[in-house]
Amino acid sequence: MLLAVDIGNTDIKLGVFDGSELRASWRWATDAARLTDEYAVQLGWLLANVDLSPDHITRVAVCSVVPQLTGTFRQMAHQYLGAEPLEISESTFTGIPLRVDNPREVGPDRIANAAGAKAAYPLPVVIVDFGTATNFDVVSRHGEFLGGCFAPGIQSAIEGLMSRAARLQRFDLVAPSRVIGTNTVMCLQAGTIFGYVGLVEGLIRRIEKELGEEALIIGTGGLVETIAAQTDTIQVVDQNLTLTGLRYLAELNELRGAE
Fold first, then answer.
1. Which fold does the domain 2-87 belong to in CATH?
2. Phi-psi region for residue 213, left (φ > 0), alpha (ψ -120 to 50) or beta?
């Protein structure tokens, strides 16, 4: 079985694949201070909870934007799973040309998302990943990574606002019934959620205009459901897109190594 690990700045998504079947998945809060042993114990407990054990894991694929944790999970793979992890980078064999100025600037998570989209959906696609940042990534009809754009993530924007406005209060991230709020919480909810809807819709229009054709719009990431519920622009919600991409890349590189 394959353990796929997507290490982000806000959370860590893990999935166990038996062939193409995702047997189990979990999301952890990212904590760069935690030790290898702690993560290994937590993984062991979660595996046991779905009637699996570390002995079932024979392969590991990792994409990470947190360098401190890249080494932590590499050590966990070696020490507890007896596996050499595939660590995704711009130099990994993907079959997806990176048509950007500097391929080293393309994050491993963006590469995994592009691979997941290529494996599972008709091209071209635009992937909107709602994480610490909101990433828009474009894969052409020929399977090329063309680049994209970034915006502040929803939670990042909220935290920045709250840190600078002493009189504002914390609020639940749910859509209000109206855009015109009649109290502070409604105003914050409307501006945040409907504002991000407008951001997504506007950027997608511009991306498709530059691309010269319509694309399938795929949403992923922790807060995708909140925005996707308010717009028809996001056509597919796939919370496991990055994990699917890691599985695809692991299989691709395993086949290449066997040649």
1. Nucleotidyltransferase; domain 5 (3.30.420)
2. beta
Exposure of 174 in the CB half-sphere (CA atoms within 13 A): 3
Same CATH fold, 103-244 and 2-87? Answer: yes
Q: Rounded to 5 degrees, what are φ and ψ at 62?
A: -130, 135
The tokens describing 123, both together, are 């091209």
Structural domain boundaries in the chain: 2-87, 103-244
> To the nearest 10°, the Cα dihedral for 110, 160, 217, 212?
-90
Block residue for tokens 């054990």 = 53
Per residue in 191-233, pLDDT (tens digit) is 999 999 999 999 999 999 999 999 999 999 989 999 999 999 9
Q: Which residues pair with 127 in a beta bridge?
A: 137, 218
CATH number of this structure's domain 103-244, picked from the four choices 3.10.50.40, 3.40.50.300, 3.40.50.2300, 3.30.420.40: 3.30.420.40
Give the residue numbers marked as catalytic. Answer: 109
Q: Which amino acid is at 197?
A: V
Q: Please give the sequence-ordered ranges of beta strands (E in DSSP) within the chain, or none if there are none.
A: 2-7, 11-18, 21-29, 59-64, 86-87, 125-130, 133-139, 145-152, 216-221, 236-237
Pairwise CA distance, residues 62 & 89, whole Å: 10
Q: In terms of pTM, does the model score above 0.85?
A: yes
